[in-house]
Amino acid sequence: MVDVGVAIASDNIPSVEQWIDQQLIAKPTIVQVGEWNGDRTKRFNTLIVQPYVLAQEIVAA
Q1: Matching Pfam families, A to Z (predicted)?
Q2: Facing residues of 54 across strands?
Q3: How far, in Å, are 7, 16, 45, 56 from residue 59 at the CA level?
Q4: Number of structural domains, the chain?
């Protein structure tokens, strides 16, 4: 997630576009947000890179 934040902050457009094309990063859908709000047990790592908030779900082991 830090690599994505650095790429966004440094305007590394080729890397960010590649991640978007590969669906490695994406804006959450309304359905995803609804699921996240409905399940308060989900946990996320987050990183703010103004004006964006990056979130990565922590998968239970």
Answers
A1: DUF2288
A2: 47
A3: 24, 23, 10, 9
A4: 1
pTM for this entry: 0.81
Indicate the average pLDDT of the chain. 94
Asked whether the beta carbons of 55 and 44 are under 8 A apart, the reply is yes
Alpha carbons 29 and 8: distance in angstroms, whole number: 20
Question: What share of the chain in percent tops pLDDT 70?
Answer: 98
Q: What is the domain range of residue 19? A: 2-57
Q: Measured between alpha carbons, how far apart are the two ends of the chain, in Å?
A: 19
Tokens 């979130």 locate to 55
